[in-house]
């Protein structure tokens, strides 16, 4: 079996199937949920949506912007996130139904289209997803790619995500990732991800193995409910803001480090926030550079319209190779 670091367009699409969920294993949110039992009382896709009140959020985020022109919009029904537009790639999404189904779609001006469906969802008593199936269809440039995957999540007694296994496959490609979280005093302090990609081309199988380790630091700064994402822009942040991945960290990250092998030297990043007059996080920075701005029902009118000239490269698109990440 040969090692191969540059994967085809199909492998990139399948890679994104697993990445749809990956930062749920390495995100930080500055709000807390109730101490429900982690894996007990599965509702089997009953449509049990956690409300912002369930998560301890007093002021739900209704919009997020980035310096690159990305804009997210969130709509709530009876305190639960049910629809909107995602920050990355402008995916229109809906969350709801009995059984619970999550749907997303996007259409580009060049004719490229993307559809994803998360179904067969099982949840624990607190509404966190314990397992689900994801299907993706992406069309463009005269080609259509389809992929499918599934994941399982394990939570501790405080409904905090401690392990996730994500798998995806097609006739030519497979991807498996395992994420393990370590928590301390209500905060996520470490995430380790190991993954294996296998691709078959012209009778030969190529394998790529990866390792990523994130260590997080905190300085006691509380937050009203902001999720900070690190690993990949293709992750739909609306799944996090819908409260479907268990209890998040209680404090704001003040720094984190990342390394891509067990023996490598880590890269360190400092983090900071701005708060508005009500003590809510209004902006998040890394190494002094603005990453995201956050808006609430009483401040969304202040949101500046983002120009289209600074569009960020689509991380999710199937025509992006692994080496370009």
UniProtKB/TrEMBL annotation:
<protein>
    <submittedName>
        <fullName>DUF4595 domain-containing protein</fullName>
    </submittedName>
</protein>
<feature type="signal peptide">
    <location>
        <begin position="1"/>
        <end position="25"/>
    </location>
</feature>
<keyword id="KW-0732">Signal</keyword>
């Amino acid at each position: 079996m040969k090692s191969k670091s540059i994967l085809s367009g199909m492998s990139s699409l399948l890679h994104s199937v697993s990445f749809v969920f990956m930062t749920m294993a390495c995100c930080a949110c500055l709000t807390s949920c109730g101490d429900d039992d982690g894996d007990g009382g599965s509702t089997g896709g009953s449509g049990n949506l956690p409300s912002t009140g369930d998560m301890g959020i007093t002021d739900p985020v209704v919009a997020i912007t980035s310096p690159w022109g990305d804009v997210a919009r969130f709509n709530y029904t009876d305190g639960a996130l049910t629809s909107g537009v995602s920050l990355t790639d402008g995916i229109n999404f809906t969350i709801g139904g009995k059984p619970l189904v999550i749907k997303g779609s996007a259409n580009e001006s060049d004719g490229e289209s993307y559809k994803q469906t998360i179904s067969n969802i099982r949840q624990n008593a607190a509404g966190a997803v314990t397992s689900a199936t994801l299907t993706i269809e992406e069309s463009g440039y005269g080609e259509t790619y389809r992929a499918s995957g599934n994941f399982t999540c394990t939570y501790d007694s405080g409904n905090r995500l401690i392990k996730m296994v994500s798998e995806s496959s097609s006739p030519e490609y497979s991807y498996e990732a395992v994420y393990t979280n370590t928590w301390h005093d209500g905060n996520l302090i470490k995430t380790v991800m190991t993954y294996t990609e296998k691709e078959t081309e012209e009778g030969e199988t190529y394998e790529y193995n990866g390792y990523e380790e994130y260590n997080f630091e905190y300085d006691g700064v509380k937050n009203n409910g902001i999720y900070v994402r690190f690993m990949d822009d293709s992750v739909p942040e609306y799944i996090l803001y819908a409260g479907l991945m268990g209890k998040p960290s209680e404090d704001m990250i003040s720094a984190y480090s990342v390394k891509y092998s067990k023996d490598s030297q880590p890269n360190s990043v400092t983090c900071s926030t701005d708060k508005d007059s009500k003590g809510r996080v209004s902006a998040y920075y890394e190494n002094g550079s603005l990453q995201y701005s956050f808006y609430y029902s009483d401040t969304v009118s202040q949101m500046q319209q983002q120009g289209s000239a600074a569009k960020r490269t689509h991380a999710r698109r199937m025509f992006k190779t692994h080496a370009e990440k």
